[in-house]
Amino acid sequence: MLRGETLVVSYPARMSKAEAERIAVELRDRMQRRLARERIDLRVRARRLARELDLPLPANVEWSDRQLHRWGSCTPVDRRIRVSSRLAAFPLWVLDYVLVHELAHLRYADHSAEFHELVARYPKSERAIGFLIAQSIYLDEG
Description:
CATH architecture of the largest domain: 2-Layer Sandwich
Shape: elongated
Structural class: alpha+beta
Largest sheet: 3 strands, mixed
Number of helices: 5
Number of domains: 2
Helix content: 40-55%
Strand content: 5-15%
Order of helices and strands: EEHHEEEHHH
CATH superfamily of the largest domain: Metalloproteases ("zincins"), catalytic domain
Radius of gyration: 18 Å
Oligomer: single chain
């Protein structure tokens, strides 16, 4: 429960302090992601990037709490894009790269040379890829 800007977590007396702290951290992280997501309008960002970089427009763009091993996914048939809610905590240029990557899949379902040419239109592609690789390594080790 939120009291002002403070997250208050109650737990049963029989639960160990270590377990209660682990759950509190998990709940805090989940709350922070939710609040970060609420500040970001994915549809507006995706449409702006599509226009600026001459990429296909999506039918829908949404956050996904279920994507734990991917940063994003795309279903070209229905033009639907989902991005991991974990991205809400990252710099916006990283989120934009993932959106560009998924928008490019609306034209090319594979990772062909043509696909990579579309993605390379985003000027911070290489930087974002490095950031995501580092995050993946950190998450794998954690």
